[in-house]
Amino acid sequence: xxxxxxxxxxxxxxxxxxxxxxxxxxxxxxxxxxxxxxxxxxxxxxxxxxxxxxxxxxxxxxxxxxxxxxxxxxxxxxxxxxxxxxxxxxxxxxxxxxxxxxxxxxxxxxxxxxxxxxxxxxxxxxxxxxxxxxxxxxxxxxxxxxxxxxxxxxxxxxxxxxxxxxxxxxxxxxxxxxxxxxxxxxxxxxxxxxxxxxxxxxxxxxxxxxxxxxxxxxxxxxxxxxxxxxxxxxxxxxxxxxxxxxxxxx
Length: 250
Description:
Oligomer: single chain
Strand content: 5-15%
Mean pLDDT: 92
Number of domains: 1
Shape: globular
Strand order of the largest sheet: 1-2-3-4
Largest sheet: 4 strands, antiparallel
């Protein structure tokens, strides 16, 4: 298994931004397949297949087929939001560095990509369309997933979408199982009881988009720390499993 955690998929995708790495970059899809084809908490192997049935990737449990789609999960707000509107304050070079890190494998996630109910959002769509409460942020998405497992009220409205995909989240048994499977430990507390939510956050009552310089710089710093930490965690995982046979796609 070879994974380059420094690779910026936006630069690895000819025709970007018109061509979305999450949709068309074959290396990103193969990285997802290699990383996440592994045992689930109950021992079943989450073997991902690509290139057939019209799916980006899919897993067949024998009872249900789960269609998965890639999502660049950490927004930088450099293309919209405070940083875009105030380049003189934020700095174009630092914006470019942040954007490049966000498009490494540490900033990528797989979510169910099939539409459960006609006209209803997928998780990827909801993360982006709920701009006030989620604004594409992975930290807030993981907080909503934590609440989903605990059956807690989710004021962001993302919980409505997550509940449609409860059979997918059921594969991982618990919030801890989900976090460990997708190597998200650096985004949660050591006992998995809470998410290290970045500012701004006040329980989904106000905008999730940083709207002043201090808040944006803090958000960027914490995001980069997480991206670096998850990439290091991915590197350790790859090193530990590089000699293991990788499930083949079909």
